[in-house]
Amino acid sequence: MTESARVLFSAGEAGGIIGAACRGNLEASIVTVVVDSRRAVPNSLFVALPGEKVDGHNYIGAALERGATVVLAATAQKEKALRTFSASDSSKACLIFADSPLRGLQALAREHRRRLKGLLRIGVTGSSGKTTTKECIAAALKLSYPSGAVAVNEGNLNSDIGLSLSMFELDKSHALGVFEMGMNRRGEMEELAAIYEPDLVVVTNIGSAHIGMIGSQEGIAAEKKMVFSRFNGKQRAFVWDEDPFKDFLARGVPGRFLEFGLKSGNGFEKAESLGLGGWEIAWKDQRFVFPLPGRHNLLNGLAALAIASELGLDPALTVKGLSSVQPLFGRSELLSGRVKLLKDCYNANPDSMDAAISLCDSVQVQGRHVYVLGSMKELGSISLAAHEALGRKAAESKADALFFFGEEAEASFLAATALRPGANKSLFHTNSMDELFSLVQAYLRDGDLVLLKASRSLALELLADRLVQAGFAEESRNAS
């Protein structure tokens, strides 16, 4: 694509869309949008967003030096922005002032997306499994579309900022979008729905992720339900057939509500567990191996199959695509070697912890079961009870050794200890990564299965890296 063909807006056009005042060159072209000055390039729009730790208005000069030709700043920071602008070589650039640069970014993202006629928009939300489900859907559908016609937001860029930036990656070559929509505050899901306006929505589940920010599971369900706020009767939604909130989600929402899961049909016949090797699935007279292990991942795959069925896609192409799906960083990554290392440490909440422990309990190994369980964050007032429940669950599991890591996880350790699980189960707790590595390294033997599970901020992937460096496993995926 040539640069001229990639022009999103002129500065004046962008200001008109936002309803904002402009100062400078109204003809300045915008070919890309950034919120990090270090990513600014010639003809980019730099959106100066205020944050808890850094304020984008302090980096306007840096963005201009890197070639940004348009800057979107807050009206409240007008004088500061003008001083920086005047001090820079900005004769060909333009400043746009809006009450909220974030709202301005979202308005531009929505306008760019709306100009792409004929784009089928699939949105994926839920308390857990969003990113993996998004990747499963894209994999299952991509072979039924021309090469490069399926757009997916990178990683988990699913927030008010991330989803907005992802919209600018869409172009006329895309026939289908599969975009993750996450939220961690009240009102955010409604903003995401206004930006993306999905035609088809998948709600993976209503769980306890971010409950500390929302307050209750019922509150989470109500916020997630706002993903349907742009439905007018033409759209479709898929909800998990065993979700206790499925009726609440559908109530009063125009459009068709469908279900996915083990009981919902959609061509699904049966699934047989292959342990850490994933599942053998029978669907629409096709038999294939879905390589992601665990019941939770099976449900993610079934959501993708349900959508393919609803869209009437070729079953053979669907299963060929889905069988190629790869685990993402920190999500059901299996490293093999002297031990089998299941690296599932991108995030954690009570539901995903329970799923990971149940998966590992179901696996037969030559050695022992070793579970490294870190703190679960963002649980608010239920944190203590949730960590105590985790400790009891872990104590009753097949683990031969439990290593609890992090401040909150001390409650898990104490709860597990109180159950007196027996002399054959070793229990440890530490807040130190160095000590954790020393304890785990000293305990491990060849043939052991090691689970690493914690919230992202615990950075348990560092323990995985050190175990790889110590020769216990190799950095490879999908080992069986």
Care to describe what's here?
The protein has 480 residues and is α/β, with parallel strands linked by helices. The protein folds into 3 domains: 4-101, 3-Layer(aba) Sandwich (Udp-n-acetylmuramoylalanyl-d-glutamate--2,6- Diaminopimelate Ligase, Chain: A, domain 1); 116-322, UDP-N-acetylmuramoyl-L-alanine:D-glutamate ligase (3-Layer(aba) Sandwich), CATH 3.40.1190; 333-469, Protein-Tyrosine Phosphatase, Chain A. It contains 17 helices and 22 strands. It has helices spanning 11-18, 60-65, 78-87, 101-114, 130-142, 162-167, 188-196, 211-214, 217-225, 246-250, 295-310, 315-322, 350-361, 383-395, 410-418, 433-443, 461-469, and strands at 9-10, 21-24, 29-30, 32-34, 44-47, 70-74, 94-98, 120-125, 150-152, 176-180, 200-203, 236-240, 256-260, 268-273, 279-283, 286-290, 333-335, 340-343, 369-374, 401-405, 426-430, 449-453. The chain has a 6-stranded parallel β-sheet with strand order 9-10-8-11-12-13. It has a 6-stranded mixed β-sheet with strand order 17-18-22-19-20-21, sandwiched between helices. Strand 19 (369-374), helix 14 (383-395) and strand 20 form a beta-alpha-beta unit.
Which key features would you list for this structure?
single chain, 480 residues, alpha/beta, Udp-n-acetylmuramoylalanyl-d-glutamate--2,6- Diaminopimelate Ligase, Chain: A, domain 1, UDP-N-acetylmuramoyl-L-alanine:D-glutamate ligase, Protein-Tyrosine Phosphatase, Chain A, 3 domains, 6-stranded parallel β-sheet, 6-stranded mixed β-sheet, 17 helices, 22 strands, 34% helix, globular, disordered N terminus
